[in-house]
Fold:
Amino acid sequence: MKCTVGRGRTLALVLVVAFAASCGSDGEPAGGRAELSQFDPRVNALLERMTLEEKVGQMTQAEIDKLASLEEIPELALGSLLNGGDADPKDGNSVEAWARMYDDAQRAALRSRLGIPLLYGVDAVHGHSNVVGAVIFPHNIGLGCTRNPALVEEIAHITAKEMRATGMHWTFAPVLAVARDERWGRTYESFSENPDVVAELATAAVRGFQRGGLAHPEAVLATAKHFLADGGTQFGTSTPPLMLIDQGDARIDEGELRAIHLLPYRRALQAGVGSMMASYSSWNGAKVHGHRYLLTELLKNELGFEGFVVSDYLAIDQLDPDYKEAVRRAITAGIDMGMVAHRYREFIQVLLELVREGAVPMERIEDAVRRILRVKFAMGLMDRDARLWSNPALQALVGSPEHRAVARRAVRESLVLLKNQNRLLPLRKDLGRLHLAGVHADNLGYQCGGWTITWRGGSGRITEGTTILEAVRAAVSPTTTVTYSFDGSGADGADVVVAVIGERPYAEYTGDRADLSVESRQVEMIRTLARSGVPLVVVLVTGRPLILGDVFELADALLVAWLPGTEGQGVADVLFGDAAPVGKLSFSWPRSMEQVPVNVGDPVYDPLFPFGFGLTYDRETGG
Ligand code: GLC
Structure:
C-alpha cells in the first residue's frame, strides 16, 4: 500500500488506522518468518547446562578496546563484543590486524567453561567501513536514488565478504529509518523519506548480508535498526545543546507509526533478518529502550520476531539515573543484549541482583539467551568449524578491483542531475582546459562522509580510493589541461569549471542542523565563478538536500553526488557521458528552511524538486 501519510491528520490517516485494526496497517500478514526457533532443541539443551552467570554473560556486549584483558571474555562468559566507530585494532588498522584482533577474542571465548563463541559486531554500514583499504560504497541516501534493489543486495553481499575476511560476522546494518526531517544528522543513513523505497532497499540489503542463509561462510548477521521511528522524531525535542533532533521524540499516532515507520521492519522480518537494534529515541515521550509494547508486544508477539534485540550504545543508561533501575526497565521491556561498552561488569552485576531479587523474571532471561543462542546456532558458530574464524582466502578480495567496480557503478546510478542548462553535460573529454574548484573536489574523507574509518569520518586520504579530481584527470584526453584550486581562483579562461561543494563529514547528532543552507563561503565562490562567465558545473557532496539559494540559479549544470565513497570515478563517468545520470531523488528537496520538513503527501507540497525528480541526457547530444 502506498504510504502518503503526511503530518496533517488527513482523511487518509483515519482510513489507515481503521485498516490497521483489521490486520497489518500495510496489508502485510502479521508475523515474520519463523525459522530461528527450529534451533530450540539444541538451544534449550545448552540453556539447561548454563549457570545464571553464564546466561547473563551471554546478554552482555562489551567494546573490545574497553576490556582490561581478553581473559575477561571467558571469566565473564561474555556473549558478544563490538568495535564502535572509533575502536580499531591496537596494532594498526589493516585487514590482517582486524583478523588477528577478532581471532584472538574468539579464541579467548572458547576458553570459557562452556566455550560458547562470541557474536562480534561492527558498523559495516557502507562497506566494511572501519577498515582501511575496504571499499567504501555510497551512503544509503545515494543508494536510495538508484531505486536498484539488486545493486543494493550485491553491495551488501560484497560488504559481507570483506567483513568475513577479518572474521567479523555481524553488521549493525541496514538502517531502516524513514527520515522525515533532513535536519537530522542521520538523514544520509536513510534510504528515503518514503517507506516503500526503504522497505524495498533495506530488505535487499538484508538478503545481501545474509545471502545463502545465516550458516553460509560468506554471510553475516544483519541488524534492522533503529527500531522504531528513529527517523520520525520532531525537531527540538532532543537534549540540547548536543542534539537538536537526533534521539528525540516521535510525536505521531500509531497509525502513522505503523504506516510510515513499521512497514520496512515487516519486510525485513520476512527477509529473515536475525537481529534488531532498539532506537535511542522516544515515541510520544516514552523511551523506546524501555517500551514493552514496541519491543515485546509489537515486535516479538505481533510480528513474530524470533531473533534478538540489541540495545544501542550505552542507550540503557538513558532510561534512569539509577543504573540498576535502567537495566531493569530495558530488560523487562524486551532488550535481549546490552551494548554496554565499558560498563560490562556493572551491567552483569546489577542484572544478577535483579534476577535474584525477582525484579527480572528468570523466564525473561531465558527468553533473551534463547534468542541470542538461536542466532549462534543458525550461523554455525557453535559447530566451531572454519566459519568461526577470519577467512584468509577472502582477504585478497578486500578493496579488490572487482569490488571497486561495483562501487563505481553504484556511484554512477546514485547521482541525480537537477539542472543541465544548454546541454552543458556531458562534457567533452578533449577540452582545452578544465578547472576544478572547491575543497570537496580533492578530499577522499569528505566524499566518504561519516562512519568511515572513524565514527565521524575525516578529511583527506583517510583510506584508499579516488577523489573526484583524480577521476577527472584520469578521464580526460592527454591534450586537456586540468587545473584545480580549493577556493576557485584561477578559473578565468578555462573552457569549463566544475565546482565541488557540500558538507563536511559528521555522524549522528553531530550532524543535526537548524539551517541547511549551503555554506556562505561556498556560495561566494560560486558567485565569483559565475561572474567569470565560464560555463559552470556544480557537484554537491552532501548527506542530504541543502538550501541552494543562488547556487541553483548560477549553476549551468547541477549534479548531486551525495556521499559517494571511495570510487570518485563514478562522478567522472557521468560528467563525461560514459554513463548517463539515472538517479531519482529519494528525498524531497526543499526551497527554503520554511518548508522543512517537507515530505511526499504533505497537504501543501511545493518543494524545489519533488521526490522522484531526476534529469538525464543523451550521451551523444546532451539533450
Ligand atoms: C551508535 C549508533 C548505532 C551504532 C552503535 C554502535 O550510537 O546509534 O547506529 O550501530 O552506536 O556503533
